[in-house]
Specification:
Blueprint: E1 2-3, H1 6-10, E2 15-17, E3 22-28, E4 38-42, E5 47-50, E6 67-69, E7 73-80, E8 88-91, H2 94-104, E9 116-121
Antiparallel strand pairs: 1-6, 2-3, 2-6, 3-4, 4-5, 7-8, 7-9
């Protein structure tokens, strides 16, 4: 899980709790004297309070309600080539991978007859 980022959360980027609930609708109470100055709504409808650092309450580490930035998954398409150093090239779409392969197919033999999808989690 990626560390919580208050600016990104307020900008609407996806946020999850340690136990996997998505959290949306953040509001920062700027004038609050309490360390719990951030509110959000979980995917189960609970309204929870957090510190600016994304901690759910002041109970220390590893609280199931602590916040993290949700990871995103991207699919890339990979051509694997049998060259002297076994080269791999990746592309945003299968069409781009196939297009590239057509341009180098005389020079390189691709493993398999198509590009292979891989999922990258960021």
């Amino acid at each position: 899980m990626k560390p919580f980022n208050l600016e990104d959360a307020l900008a609407g980027k996806p946020v999850v709790t340690r136990d996997g609930k998505s959290v949306t609708g953040f509001h920062l109470f700027e004038g609050a004297k309490s360390k719990i100055c951030l509110g959000g709504v979980t995917s189960t409808g609970e309204i929870l309070g957090f510190t600016r650092e994304g901690l759910n309450g002041l109970h220390g580490d590893n609280n199931p309600g602590d916040l993290f930035m949700a990871t995103t998954k991207t699919t890339r398409w990979v051509n694997l080539y049998a060259t002297g150093n076994n080269t791999a090239y990746h592309f945003p779409t299968q069409e781009k991978a196939d297009e590239f392969h057509e341009s180098v197919s005389i020079l390189h033999k691709r493993f398999g007859n198509k590009a292979h999808p891989i999922e990258i989690e960021e």
